[in-house]
Amino acid sequence: MTSIDSLRFMFTSHLLLAGKQWRQISQAAVTEYGISAASAGPLLFIRRLGEGVRQITLAEYVGLEGASLVRLLDQLSAAGLVRREVDASDRRANSLRLTEAGNALAEKLEAELSQLRAKVFEGISVQDFEAVMRVFDAISAAAGPDADALRIPPQKHPA
After folding, report:
1. What local confidence, expressed as pLDDT, does residue 13 receive?
2. Which residues contact 70 (CB under 8 A, 6 or more apart)?
3. How do residues 116-154 score in pLDDT, each as one tens digit?
4. Quick one: residue 96, left, alpha or beta (phi over 0 = left, psi -120 to 50 = alpha)?
5. Which secondary-structure segment (H or E) carries 97?
6. Domains (ranges, CATH) in the chain?
7. Taking Cα atoms as reference points, which of 49, 57, 60 lies closest to residue 98?
């Protein structure tokens, strides 16, 4: 029987590796569509968070510093996938919208990633996923209220 301390240690050790491995396999899936994994993240999160999301909010969700995100948004904008607009309620802020081409690409990427998730997680039960989500909730709670604010509302999750 494995002790709870040992399981906790193994979980946290594997968490970082699993994140890296997921990025590797999902990166391979999105690059087939002519977009880098780095650019795919902001594109997908603009779609998931909703049109008009503020640039600073997007930076928090994708875990990028402002300057790094600006470079990616410049690339997405130059590719005709994203539009920046001055936020109507705060002229110092930018809100982001997908163009028609950006929305079409994001839709294709979401479908591709949905198929990838189905393949990778085949055989894992709903109960197992619910247990993992409870663990992630515990991590978020320990990180503080700011971390909870970054959770994607259920209605914003892709199908």
Report:
1. 92
2. 55
3. 999 999 999 999 999 999 999 898 888 876 655 555 655
4. beta
5. strand 90-98
6. 21-122 (1.10.10.10), 123-154 (no CATH)
7. 49
